[in-house]
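anyone seen this seq b4? input:
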Amino acid sequence: MIYVLSLKASNCKSLAAAIDSLGFSLELISPADIVSIKKKSVVFIPGDGHMRSLYNELKINDGIRRLQDYHSDLNLTYVGICLGFQMMCQSSKEANDLELLSLFPSRVLAIEAPPVPNVGWYDIFFNFPTSYKISNELASSKYASFYFTHSYSVGYQDVFSKQSEDKFDIILYRDSLQRKIVAGIISERLYGFQFHPEKSGNTGLRLLDNVISQCL
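predicted toks r here
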């Protein structure tokens, strides 16, 4: 089963439309209905806007704790998009170091101070040999640019310092100032993308199709 969390602070409708266009059945669920998620499902965590707003929505009916517990207890796969990817990390400076889902070993930090939106299409790349099939496909020539819009990002130093301890692949891109910025993390049953696949044309749809097909 595929679930997309229906959140006000998110791009859930456009994401659901993109998944539907690929021929997959899905269910939009509220934070209050997280308790009804079935075992071995794929759960999309979308997000747009401010981290505090997204956190408050997910916290309804103990949604934060349930998402933390259900990943292992129900053998779920999570796919975080943009702010939803950041929610999968440990804490966020945007929300005064609020403790998040802690599924990825990193803080979320401002790209620069004061925070300025980083918007545009960027090519992604990997610094290290990849461990997962999706990573290999992303690194291949058939993938090009993805659409980004964010002013906070997953801490570059945090994830690289933990990569030797935890098995995950790190996706990167260079912004207009040639700074390396984390574009995503791929791990066992955890996919986090800072970019918007649903807004990235055929390239983004191909990625969504491959992630879902491999997880179901």
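The first helix runs from residue 12 to 21. The CA atoms of residues 13 and 37 lie 19 Å apart. kinda curious what u guys think
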